[in-house]
């Protein structure tokens, strides 16, 4: 019987599929770390108080990337190149979601609208990350090798999501509500399409590594398409709602150190 737990267990039990999984995850987290660091450096003068929180967000993402690399190292594995069709952050950028890398590479201060765009993009993608890590925490929080890493990353992603809610509500109260809702909707509809494509690509690569029969791959692909159909119809709405989080000022302090996994 196929389940999220059995599927992921199969992936982590095989060195090659585990190496690909960790390489994809590490690459995405490291890219997120770079993006947040650049945004923190380019925050407009009127929003400089936000810069330390953005930098903390980036430091967390960098830490997650190091954790995934350490998990590979513990098993004597080296990272592999990330297939382009599984590169979630790159595909989001190519779809026009978030701030373009050319904009972040320029030494020119961002605008308030740029910050709103960044926060809306983060609110959507952190929803996805929080849900994925909650699923892993549900099944692997007590895993002897992955447990500590899963719990830490999951907690960080929940903090990131709380921060996005709080800051977007602050900007909404300052008169940016319409722009926020428009940007959230655009990001959510784009993200669910990219997530579907990346999920199909990842499962195809895993299937080749693990030798899945055609019927199993077809069932998994059908499941991914079914999730997309639900998200396209109504599920995207969970990514655009805003509410004051229980965790206030979630990124107000320094980043926590990575757990020892080596």
Architecture overview:
By secondary structure, this protein is mainly alpha-helical. 71% of the residues lie in helices and 0% in strands. The chain has helices at 4-13, 15-42, 51-74, 88-94, 101-105, 112-140, 147-210, 214-233. It is globular and about 55 Å long. The protein starts with a helix and ends in a 29-residue tail after the last helix.
Which short descriptors sum up this protein?
262 residues, mainly alpha, globular
Main sheet?
none
General shape = globular
Structural class: mainly alpha
Q: How many DSSP helices?
A: 8
Number of strands: 0
Report the end-to-end length measured between terminal Cα atoms. Answer: 33 Å
Mean pLDDT: 95
Task: Give unreliable regions as ranges.
Answer: none
Q: Radius of gyration, rounded? A: 18 Å
Oligomer: single chain
Helix content: over 70%
Percent of sequence in beta strands? under 5%
Q: Helix and strand succession?
A: HHHHHHHH
Which SSEs are present, and which pair or pack?
Blueprint: H1 4-13, H2 15-42, H3 51-74, H4 88-94, H5 101-105, H6 112-140, H7 147-210, H8 214-233
Q: Could you give a short description of this structure?
A:
This protein is mainly α and 262 residues long.
């Amino acid at each position: 019987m196929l389940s999220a737990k059995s599927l992921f267990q199969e992936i982590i039990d095989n060195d090659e599929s585990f190496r690909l999984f960790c390489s994809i995850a590490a690459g995405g987290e490291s890219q997120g770390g770079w993006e947040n660091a650049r945004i923190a450096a380019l925050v407009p003068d009127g929003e400089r108080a936000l810069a330390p929180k953005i930098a903390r967000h980036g430091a967390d993402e960098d830490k997650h990337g190091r954790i995934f690399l350490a998990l590979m190292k513990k098993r004597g594995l080296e990272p592999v190149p990330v297939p382009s069709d599984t590169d979630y952050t790159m595909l989001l950028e190519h779809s026009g979601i978030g701030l373009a890398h050319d904009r972040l590479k320029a030494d020119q201060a961002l605008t308030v609208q740029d910050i709103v765009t960044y926060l809306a993009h983060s609110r959507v993608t952190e929803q996805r990350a929080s849900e994925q890590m909650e699923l892993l925490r549900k099944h692997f929080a007590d895993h002897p090798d992955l447990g500590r890493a899963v719990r830490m990353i999951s907690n960080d992603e929940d903090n990131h999501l709380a921060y996005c809610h709080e800051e977007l509500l602050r900007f909404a109260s300052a008169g940016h509500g319409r722009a926020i809702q428009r940007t959230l909707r655009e990001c959510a509809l784009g993200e669910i399409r990219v997530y579907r494509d990346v999920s199909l690509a990842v499962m195809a690569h895993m299937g080749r590594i693990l030798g899945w029969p055609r019927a199993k791959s077809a069932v998994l692909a059908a499941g991914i398409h079914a999730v997309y159909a639900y998200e396209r119809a109504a599920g995207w709405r969970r990514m655009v709602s805003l509410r004051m989080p229980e965790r206030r000022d979630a990124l107000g302090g320094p980043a926590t150190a990575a757990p020892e996994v080596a």
